[in-house]
Amino acid sequence: MTVDTKSGKKEKVRKMFNEISYRYDFLNHFLSMGIDILWRKKLVDLLKKQHPKYVLDVATGTGDLAITASRIEAIKIIGVDIAEEMLAVGRKKINQKKLDHKIELRLGDSENLPFETGTFDAAIVAFGVRNFENLDKGLTEMYRVLSVKSKVYILEFSMPEKFPIRQLYHFYFKNILPLIGRVISKDRVAYTYLHDSVQEFPSGEAFLNRLNKAGFENASQLKLSFGIASIYVGEKA
User: Fold this and answer.
1) How far from chain centre, in Å, is Cα 72?
2) Best CA proximity match to 217, nearest among 193, 237, 197
3) Can you identify the CATH homologous superfamily of domain 9-235?
4) Which of 3, 125, 161, 210 could hold 12 in an S-S bridge, CB 3.0 to 4.6 Å?
5) What does the alpha-carbon distance between residue 129 and residue 135 come to, in Å, rounded to a whole number?
């Protein structure tokens, strides 16, 4: 089974993440050697400068980015995701950290957000946009629900360009990561999909062009860890 076909990608992604939800957090931190935690903190450092009061966390998964963002002085952070089992894990974490007064997780489709136009002061995403069935629609929806002069912050894997980082990165993602992921998660598809989805994602200048197409202005890319990941920022004029 593959999850990168145009037909039914959303349902396959939903099923896949529901099935690995119980091991998702452990595998994320283990396979990245904890660097993903630092990447999220970097995004929140950028977010904090905007002083948003109402934040939308798109494709929130188990809520890691929303929890990291809870240290800013926002009134409310709402996370949406299509995988109920991922949200269930996230709600447990939020309750344990006593953050349920500030963070709310909802079942929702990132490409059809259940919010009025101009609802949020900022939108954030960590490793979620490459899972959209329709990337342009998802970006356009985030643009719609943002208020004027608000920003979107997107953390996503990207392809490093320099030797030997690019070659090592590709080998790890294609061979080592899927093997460890399969053994621990007992899922034959999920971590092969991770490699494939990163390969297919229009990173760098191509993604900046997609942000511009969705209406965002002043789009920029901040490369992290030799270009292994990037934070993309766009502003709603």
Assistant:
1) 19
2) 237
3) Vaccinia Virus protein VP39 (3.40.50.150)
4) 3
5) 7
